[in-house]
Specification:
Length: 337
């Protein structure tokens, strides 16, 4: 009953986005039986009576980050950025990542603390293996000095290794999705697991590249899950599709109570060459994408880029998503290319 009640909060707006409808459960349905009241009391724990609109805003000359708890009763997003990625071989690289937690925050918190460490180990291993005799470890390195035939596979394997680490240290059944961006002097790598998303936009508001969400609606994901022995279904009429009647995303870190063959930490990578067309990179959790399309976000930023500072644009974007009735946690990076 609880799951069906949660599904009742979900609908679709005319643009096809998921929209959550908030109800003040404790103030309604006084004449229903005690079981119905208990169900609504349980549902009310997921949401506040009014949104928490306090923002976290971080910025420097090249990026801005903004987050807001919104209607959710807890803030389960985490984030991290490193500029530079390190002070030695990868001092010309940058790193940005958002971790959208569910069922608790431990997975998102631990993953945010560990992912960059695992990625750096992978990059050092690849580079040293190929160039150990050619350059010192303190020399800055670019994508062209890596084995590009294997970099995608190595990065993907890094997320599986991170997931193994999480299994050893987590003490709850939480999980998270993740959107990551690595920026080298020559390349931009957008790396995603789940339904957080990244886009690269031009200075006239065109979306040049973007990640694809890992959602149960995706036919390829449906085929993969069915082959792994899993199932996708709706728990109630009008509800969203869920994996094993639990997750509304198909790839995750954590969630060890589930079969990881069905919901693996399997990243996809979009590689984009840095060029004069690219103006901004945007990374955001689904609290943003639930109510705005890629094009909506691109135009929102570009229309303000010549007038406002990046941190002001990030702040205004959070407010706009709340106005559009996003009821999830919201986090966003806006990065100058």
């Amino acid at each position: 009953m609880l799951q069906a009640g949660i599904e009742a909060l979900f609908g679709r707006n005319r643009d096809g986005h998921r929209t959550r409808r908030i109800f003040h459960f404790r103030r309604r349905h006084h004449n229903h039986d005690s079981n119905h009241k208990n169900e609504h009391d349980e549902l009310a724990k997921f949401f506040l009576d009014k949104p928490n609109v306090e923002k976290v805003l971080i910025h420097d000359s090249t990026f801005a980050f903004g987050s807001m708890q919104g209607w959710r009763s807890t803030m389960e997003d985490r984030h991290k950025h490193l500029i530079p990625l390190d002070k030695h071989s990868w001092k010309s690289w940058s790193y940005f990542a958002i971790f959208d937690g569910h069922n608790g925050v431990d997975t998102a918190k631990t993953a945010s603390e560990q992912l960059d460490i695992h990625l750096l180990n992978t990059l050092y291993h690849m580079s040293d293996k190929k160039h150990k005799s050619e350059q010192s470890s303190d020399e800055s390195r670019g994508s062209s000095q890596l084995d590009l035939d294997h970099i995608h596979d190595a990065i993907k394997q890094t997320y599986f290794e991170l997931d193994k680490y999480l299994r050893k240290v987590l003490k709850d059944e939480s999980g998270c999705v993740c959107i990551t961006c690595l920026i080298s002097p020559e390349k931009i790598y957008l790396i995603n697991i789940g339904d957080s998303r990244a886009i690269i936009i031009s200075n006239d508001g065109h979306v040049l590249a973007h990640t694809e969400d890992h959602k149960p609606e995706d036919p390829a994901e449906q085929e993969r899950i069915h082959e792994a022995g899993g199932k996708i279904s709706k728990s109630c009429i009008g509800g969203v599709l869920r994996v094993e009647n639990q997750l509304a995303m198909t790839r995750v870190l954590g969630d060890f109570a589930m079969d990881k063959h069905i919901v693996p930490p399997m990243a996809d990578i979009v590689e984009y060459s840095r060029n004069s067309l690219a103006s901004f990179i945007v990374l955001a959790c689904d609290g943003i994408w639930d109510v705005m399309t890629n094009e909506d976000v691109a135009l929102f930023i570009i229309h303000r880029a010549s007038t406002y500072k990046l941190e002001d644009i990030a702040s205004q974007l959070l407010e706009e998503c709340l106005r559009r009735r996003s009821t999830d946690n919201m986090s966003v990076y806006i990065v100058k290319v």
